[in-house]
Write a structure and sequence with these properties.
Layout lengths: L1 E5 L4 H12 L3 E5 L11 H5 L5 E4 L7 H9 L3 E4 L6 H6 L1 H22 L3 E7 L25 H20 L2 E7 L1 E3 L11 H11 L4 E3 L5 E2 L1 E3 H11 L6 E5 L5 E2 H12 L6 E3 L14 H7 L7 H16 L1
Parallel strand pairs: 1-2, 1-4, 2-3, 4-5, 5-6, 6-11, 7-10, 8-13
Antiparallel strand pairs: 9-12
Helix pairs in contact: 1-8, 3-5, 5-6, 7-9, 7-11, 9-11
């Protein structure tokens, strides 16, 4: 398979690139390196047996469509995005430019290239909006009423994918991701709490927990997510599929798992709750099991141990 990955130098994208190359596929990456890092692609670039190439480009640039048309990938994995919810609130035009218009550039390129499919990274934590506790874990049948511009842009992108399928027979699968964590996640800025905790635990600093710490999230390991993308290349066409564990994990539970793996006995520091933060979040991934043959295979303790080991190795 000739694959093209937008955002392929990022946290999830680079792990997907490694998986695709390990499966023997030809891979091209488009990334503007605004948040992605070439270091994340070190293994991909170093192995001469890999069919791999990198293009430093922005998906907002119309020339991206031309590049995709020229390179003619069979499958486009579209992960490039503006992912900061707070930025989407403060600058919704920027968010839409990247996540909506950038997606259209990619879709136009895929259409003109005759690609058979686009696999899209959506957001299970935002597209459904505020979900009542009795509706957890949330299924894909739940109404989509996102309350942040970021969630709106992800919903709109999937609507465009559906339109391109109807108009141009360009297949798609949209993966609504839970809280993804794992090696290469950036602890700076609005990153996953797992990466933030790992950096602080290994630096001997107190971790900060906002609110009571009993708020829950669905933490899914990045290798499991890469597996879902790989499977979606040939399955689940025309579907939105949740990618999560179906298990609610509190921030306190997460901290205890990570502190144990880091050998830290001290508890976290508690701070006031942040305005607008969801109390609970969890995805039902039954559709992914049925249509992709996908299930998460990494336990929280195993995943957090791998994160601690990776962050420790970065400091050596």
């Amino acid at each position: 398979m000739r694959a093209l990955v937008t955002g392929g130098a990022g946290f999830i994208g680079s792990n997907l690139v490694d998986r695709l190359l390990a499966e023997g596929h030809s891979v091209e990456v488009i990334d503007n390196l605004s948040t992605g890092k070439l270091a994340n692609l070190a293994d991909a670039r170093a192995n001469r047996d890999h069919e791999f190439s990198f293009h430093q480009m922005d998906v907002c640039d119309p020339s991206v469509s031309e590049l995709i048309e020229r390179r003619a990938p069979e499958v486009v994995f579209h992960l490039a995005a503006q992912i900061d919810v707070r930025v989407s609130v403060s600058d919704p035009v920027l968010d839409a430019r990247i996540n909506v218009l950038g997606t259209l550039n990619v879709l136009e390129g895929a259409r003109r290239a005759g690609s058979r499919k686009v696999v899209f990274a959506s957001s299970g934590g935002t597209i459904y909006g505020d979900v009542d506790a009795e509706d957890l874990p949330v299924t894909e049948a739940h109404p989509q009423h996102p309350v942040a511009p970021y969630g709106v842009s992800k919903k709109v992108a999937t609507d465009y994918l559906h339109a391109y399928r109807e108009l141009h027979q360009l297949e798609y699968t949209s993966l609504a991701l839970a809280n993804v964590y794992g090696p290469r996640q950036d602890p700076h800025g609005e990153a996953g709490v797992v990466a933030i905790f790992a950096g602080k635990l290994l630096a001997g600093e107190r971790c900060k927990v906002f609110g009571t710490g009993e708020q829950t999230r669905d933490y899914v390991y990045v290798d499991d997510v890469a597996d879902a993308f790989w499977r979606a290349a040939d399955r689940g066409s025309g579907l939105l599929c949740n990618i999560g564990t179906g298990t609610e994990t509190s921030v306190n539970q997460l901290y205890r798992s990570m502190a144990d793996n880091a050998g830290v006995a001290e508890g976290p520091e508690y701070a006031p709750s942040r305005v607008g933060e969801l109390d609970r979040s969890c995805l039902d991934a039954s559709r992914a099991k049925l249509h992709l043959g996908w299930e998460p295979f990494t336990s929280l303790d195993s995943g957090t141990a791998a994160v601690i080991d990776w962050f420790r190795a970065q400091g050596d």
